[in-house]
Amino acid sequence: MCLRQLLQSSQLQRAWRAAFLKHIQGRHPGAWRWTHSGGGPYRAVIFDMGGVLLPSPGRVAAGPLELLQFDHGQSNPTCYVKLASHQLILRKKPPGTLLPSVHAVEREFSIVGNAFYLMEYCPGLINKDPSPPGLEPSQRQAIYTAMKRVLCKIHSVDLKAAGLEDYGKHGQASSVTVKQTGKLTEFMCNLAWDFPVKKRFQIFKEMLATKPLMGSHHSWSRPQSLLRTPSMRSYVTSTDSSPALASKGALIFSPEGLSPRVRELYQQLKEFMERHVYPAEPELQRHQASAERWTPSPLVEDLKEKAKAEGLWNLFLPLETDPEKKYGTGLTNVEYAHLCEVMGTSLYAPEIFNCSAPDTGNMELLVRYGTEEQKARWLVPLLEGKARSCFAMTEPQVASSDATNIESSIREEDGFYVINGHKWWITGILDPRCQLCVFMGKTDPHAPRHQQQSMFLVPMDTPGIKIIRPLKVYGLEDAPGGHGEVLFEQVRVPKENIILGPGRGFEILLGRLGSGRIHHCMRLIGCSERALALMKARAKSRVAFGKPLIEQGTVLADIALSRVEIEQARLLVLKAAHVMDVAGNKAAALDIAMIKMVAPSMASRVTDRAIQVFGAAGLSSDHPLAQFFVGARVLHLADQVHQRSVAKMELKHRS
Q1: Mean pLDDT, each 10-residue run in order, the chain (655 residues)
Q2: What residues contact residue 192 under an 8 Å CB cut-off, 6+ apart?
Q3: What residues pair up with 54 in beta bridges, in sequence order?
Q4: Which domain of life is it from (predicted)?
């Protein structure tokens, strides 16, 4: 809400005062009469229909009552209410038994027999960036100063004089208890810091919008005659455009739109690729096919040091995860997506910049969920590039695309957790530098379905880890990391190696996958661009049936179709990254699922066309096309899971 408007609105103050007096006097909580600025009376009764608020057919009003209910991200049902010229936000207590952590609305206010409260609606923007984008430093300073003044005003309210002494949950850190402890100044300083940095930053505009600005999904509750037609979507996934979203909060379609700092990084990365990575590919390919392939290439290690020296290191950690830029460069998902595409043009580039899977996902997992001790032991070596890691989830005996099927057992015993399980397709486990395995298994098979799994940090030198064999993907070994089939037999790990706690594995898994999916998809865009470039160069240089390939109609069609499909996929991936930046991974679930469907299939088609133009040479290791194709095909395996997710979300929001 906008505090200034709320406190200065005489109409709202009178309404609250009247309702409060009637409530404490024990009068019958029937329909209340409201008077808006035009003087027209309103009479409304709110019914509870399974958590959905509906206008009473008995209301008397000069115009329709319009309600919009937010369908996620709220501990209590929250609605936008429009009564003639009034725009309000209404929150009510949900039906049924509440979890202890759910916000109890009755602590705030309760009338008409159902706890709810009202505040004025004020359109604004919610920025997850600690520094509001598109603003000068002086403007940001003014916002921070105003925010602290507002917080001070809130905590200087005399609750007794306002008649609110008996409201609220006593014992929490309120202004009253803070004053009693004499730590008001310290409390306000901490709150003023946590609010913009850790709890996101909310900037309100002075002007009113004609429509409420929505971030992520919403659903409408209206009279039957005003319902949307079935063919129209009933959700949105981004806010309206605004000049305030000119930088990090905006959807940036091309590298030219990046901020100067990120644009410089982008150009620096492209130059590094041209100077060092592409010329090194033949040597790296020979090493990967040699007898020493299971030993890391000294050339890769040399290039990693050069990349680190130029500041092209650990670019992947999103600003949301690392707001203080303690571990990475502080790029948004959109900004990193453009850089990740460049890295995707070479099979070897991600490792050179310490931005390769599964290390990126494991490092982000440790930043998000790891304890300080876990970070010191495992995160630091991974960030420095001195160690590698793997992620053990997939099992041969069950369909592991449904993570709840995982059967590996984990039990407590004498201060340790004992792990037993059979895993396969564990990428990177064969690398001699692999020191850490992030293991997922069941600690409580009788718990609710999504609370049975837990995650552990397992040192690779722990007794009981047995690598059965390396697995080949279409004959490719992907040395030195490879993909292994592994047995975990009576593997004992200390209790402090659990991540977050028992039953939190599925929660961690979903958090780990968000940014990683963007990374995979943008790398696929990069490899598709490289495949198209190779296709065009080949078509210009070869002659068949009396004329250059570039003049063959089928080749021209393949080039045109490839360009269109790449551009379509890139836009969808950038949109998903944008929604993640401005609304969070949860709100971006639909967009993330869609790109996981689109990007691998697109990359497979583009690479296949390039192979066709190359002929037999496209199947060889002389060119990266065969490995590009294999990589895209592997990621293609998840299509059915994401198709199911997209269909379920589509049906839910269209119903």
Answers
A1: 41 44 42 34 34 38 67 66 80 64 50 64 65 68 78 79 63 44 49 45 33 31 29 32 42 89 96 97 94 96 97 91 88 94 96 95 93 96 96 93 90 95 96 97 93 96 97 93 97 96 89 76 96 96 91 95 97 93 85 92 97 95 94 82 84 70
A2: 144, 147, 148, 151
A3: 47
A4: Eukaryota
Q: Is the pTM of this model over 0.70?
A: no
Q: What 3-state class would DSSP assign to 513? A: helix
Residue owning tokens 């005399």:
158
Q: Which residues contact 401 (CB under 8 A, 6 or more apart)?
A: 637, 638, 640, 641
* Residues 613 and 533 sit within 8 Å (Cβ to Cβ): no
Q: State the residue for tokens 């590094």.
A: 272
Residue closest to 219 by CA, chosen among 207, 203, 235, 205: 235
Q: Which amino acid is at 521?
A: C
Question: Phi, psi at residue 357, to the nearest 5°?
Answer: -80, 150
Torsion (CA) 136, 139, 141, 145 in degrees, nearest 10: -170
Burial grade of 428 (CB within 10 A; 0-12, 13-18, 19 or more):
buried
Residue type, 65: L
Element housing 343 (H / E): helix 333-343
Contact 532, 559 (CB under 8 A): yes
Are residues 467 and 429 in contact, defined by beta-carbon separation less than 8 angstroms?
yes
**Contact status, residue 150 vs residue 3, Cβ threshold 8 Å:** yes
Annotate 532-581 with DSSP letters as a single string.
HHHHHHHHHH-EETTEEGGG-HHHHHHHHHHHHHHHHHHHHHHHHHHHHH
Which pLDDT belongs to residue 211?
37
